[in-house]
Amino acid sequence: MTSKSSVPLYYRQHLFFCTNERPADHVRGSCKVRGSEKLRNYMKARAKELGLDDTRINTAGCLDRCENGPVVVVYPEGVWYQCTTAEEAEQILQQHVKQGKIVDHLMLQPRDQESAKS
Questions:
Q1: Pairing state of beta strands 71-75 and 13-18?
Q2: Where along the chain do its domains lie?
Q3: pLDDT tens string 55-93
Q4: 36, 45, 104, 109: which could join 70 in a potential S-S bond, CB 3.0 to 4.6 Å?
């Protein structure tokens, strides 16, 4: 059996951008209604422009943080961000993806998770 650490990774980082859509009158709202597809597309194009070939940006279904959306989660770190503008997407790419620094003011906190469930 091969150890997990000796298996080559396809990507150094993987960003999952919620693009889930709920009915327009749904109480929790949805990331898609808040513009997540446009932001995901921006982030994908910028990552390519920046030469971030070791980073993959994908669509995700519901990440269950609808009230905080649009939401993106970065793995393997497991850091969750609220990303509502192209400027915020740029900050995530420049600071987190390129420099390895968490963008504190965009990061969702445990209290955000609890409020979403109530």
A1: antiparallel
A2: 10-113
A3: 999 999 988 888 888 999 999 999 999 999 999 999 999
A4: 36
Contact 40, 57 (CB under 8 A): yes
Give the integer Cα–Cα distance in Å for 46 and 88: 12
Its pTM stands at 0.84
DSSP per residue over 38-50, as a string? HHHHHHHHHHHHT
Q: Token digits for 3?
A: 């150890």
Q: How many CA atoms lie within 13 A of 28 on its CB side?
A: 19
* CB environment 23-55: b (16+ within 10 A), e (fewer): eeeeeeebbbbbbbbebbebbbebbeeeebeeb
10-113 under CATH 3.40.30.10, yes or no: yes
Among 88, 82, 50, CA closest to 68? 82
Q: Is the peptide bond before 70 cis (omega within 30 degrees of 0)?
A: yes
